[in-house]
Amino acid sequence: MLRLDISSDKSGQADDLLQRIAAALDCPVTNFYQSHPCEASQTAEMLRLWMLIEHEQDRLKVLSILRSAIPTTVTQGATDASKQFA
Fold first, then answer.
1. What would the pLDDT profile of 48-80 be if each residue is shown by its tens digit?
2. Per-residue confidence (pLDDT) for residue 35, from 0 to 100
3. Given this model, what pLDDT does residue 14 score?
4. CA distance 77 to 72
5. CA-based angle 47:27:77, to the nearest 5?
6. Domain segments of the chain as ranges
7. What is the residue-wise DSSP string for 7-64?
8. 52-72 burial, b if ≥16 CB within 10 A, otherwise e?
9. Banded model confidence at residue 34, pLDDT cuts 50, 70, 90
């Protein structure tokens, strides 16, 4: 698993990366620092499992399930933000 060591980041690259991730997720950067340990481990597991999905149609199924679990207004913002990386 890739780990980001920000302790020696003098150029602000870690901050820039967090800003880009936050923009793609349509959330403030501070959300990354507010998670509980169980939430962080669940998020890490979700991302690890996501990386193991080989076929695009399977990833689309997973995205559909995730989107169905949250309110439509929240889903639309995340969908729009993800288009910038397509």
1. 999 999 999 999 999 999 889 988 766 555 555
2. 63
3. 80
4. 9
5. 90
6. 36-86
7. TT--SSHHHHHHHHHHHHHTS-GGGGGS--HHHHHHHHHHHHHHHH---HHHHHHHHH
8. eeeeeeeeeeeeeeeeeeeee
9. confident
